Amino acid sequence: MVLLESEQFLTELTRLFQKCRLSGSVFITLKKYDGRTKPIPRKGSVEGFEPSDNKCLLRATDGKKKISTVVSSKEVNKFQMVSFWCTLYALSQGKGEHIEQWVR
Amino acid sequence: MGRGVGARRRRHLGPLGLRTGRWLPEVGGRWAGSRRLRSRASPPLALRCGPTMPQYQTWEEFSRAAEKLYLADPMKARVVLKYRHSDGSLCIKVTDDLVCLVYRTDQAQDVKKIEKFHSQLMRLMVAKESRSVAMETD
After folding, report:
1. Which residues of B touch A59 (CB under 8 A)?
2. From the candidates B91, B126, B130, B132, which should be mutated to test the interface with A, based on the most A CB atoms within 10 A?
3. Whether the Cβ atoms of residue B104 and residue B55 lie closer than 8 Å to each other
4. Which of A28, A93, B5, B27 could serve as B32's disulfide partner, Cβ 3.0–4.6 Å?
């Protein structure tokens, strides 16, 4: 699993979509992240770990290649604006009949 | 003894055909369990699967249930999107590893709703607890 910065993640995600244009699926997973970098030990608790509340993990894969990024509250706007749905829209150009619905 | 061999394999299965049954030597030997199995119909698919996995036909039901599932335990729940360009289909799944809610579509208007829902969930996840924004259900 490759951890990337947000711009790089978006670039790689676009590449994933392009690769899976003719066949295959793109999986995107989103989950809340509390900033832990070490696994939870079976006995006792992790010392000096402050769970943070404002992050989430975004992962993408096509079955073979895996990429991921951490989105915090500062970057979430970037992900809303330059969202990967623009990529979806660009790729769905072929299905022309519903394009006007994408325009905000 | 047409059912002999199959019965030997099934002897550890209970009356429902699930692996929770025990031998019943007190009833009359090792074929006792299998004799009971012959008259039982196979259990419905929902019983055989572990977690429940409803597939929703309407977006409103799905979004309400998914929001409830996420708010019940935000750290456990995750959202998975599967996009197939060759089929033009999009599938969204919200799960907390016990319950799994699925909504599939190939309509562009649903895709827009899914995108809005996904963005709202992302905002919920990164918002601090004291200022969490309530989601608007469709």
Report:
1. none
2. B126
3. yes
4. B27
Distance CA A10, CA A17 (A): 11
pLDDT digits (tens, 9 = 90+) for A32-47: 998 888 888 888 776 7
Which of B81, B85, B111 is closest, CB to CB, to A28?
Answer: B81
Residue A23, chain B, CB below 8 Å: the answer is yes
Residue by residue, DSSP assigns A36-69 as: --SPPPSSS--TT----SSEEEEEEESSS-EEEE
- Sign of the Cα torsion A61, B80, B116, A21 reads positive
Give the tens place of pLDDT for each residue, A35-86.
Answer: 888 888 888 776 767 778 889 999 999 999 999 999 988 888 877 755 566 5
